[in-house]
Write a structure and sequence with these properties.
253 residues; 2 domains; 23% strand; alpha+beta
Amino acid sequence: MKDLRCLPFLLIALLAAASATAQTDLASREQAFSKAMELMENNQHAEAIPILEALARENKSESVLWNLGLAASEIRANDKALRVWLDYRSVAPDDWRGRAKLIQAYQATGDLKARDEQRAQLFRLWEEGKDADLASQTVYCREQIIEANRRVFALEYFRPAGDRMIFYSFQVRAPGEEGFKITLGSYEGTNQIMRETGKLKGDERIYHLDLYRPKLHETYAFYSSLPSYEAVRANVVSILSGTLNPVSSSSQP
């Protein structure tokens, strides 16, 4: 017969060994995650992805999936990024930023129907006002574009308002270059002038695409009705590539 008096000591030893292993595994995961973050900070996103994927196989935590989605998006691994953002939505369904990332991912993969469905849900959640953080936002980023070595953040306004209504604002950034923006707007002053000159009637409005630098304003297009995002995006890309010329401009000394 076995000596049962030894069992408590054996159990304690096993628990201690398991605890030590768990602590070692946790330290190893934290070290791996820190390494991935360091790589991403140095723009080595491709190198960070295998580390984050290994961590995600062990535990699909919000922080791991979020950074994996960012890394995949940075190297334009769009299908991979979409899968990751879908996983992120499953573990963080109440994070509205995850839905915004899905909008970006569907845009990148060309699934515009799914993109529009996610956008409609995001706007519905914003209008409900139950998420205090989301309700406090005036814009969200619906796409990130790389064009002519520039990164463009396409911001869409939830509810354009005021005398200078803005619907989209494309924030353009590039290393070593002063940032600027291209906006789709409908300004009350512009509409009033066009009504007084007979170019607009009643409640008609004109929409315009403008580029703004610190001392330069250029207008590139006018629209008689609110254009689709696709139409505006195409013109923005043409502006950045230099194939669309302004119809008017003004500058300051």
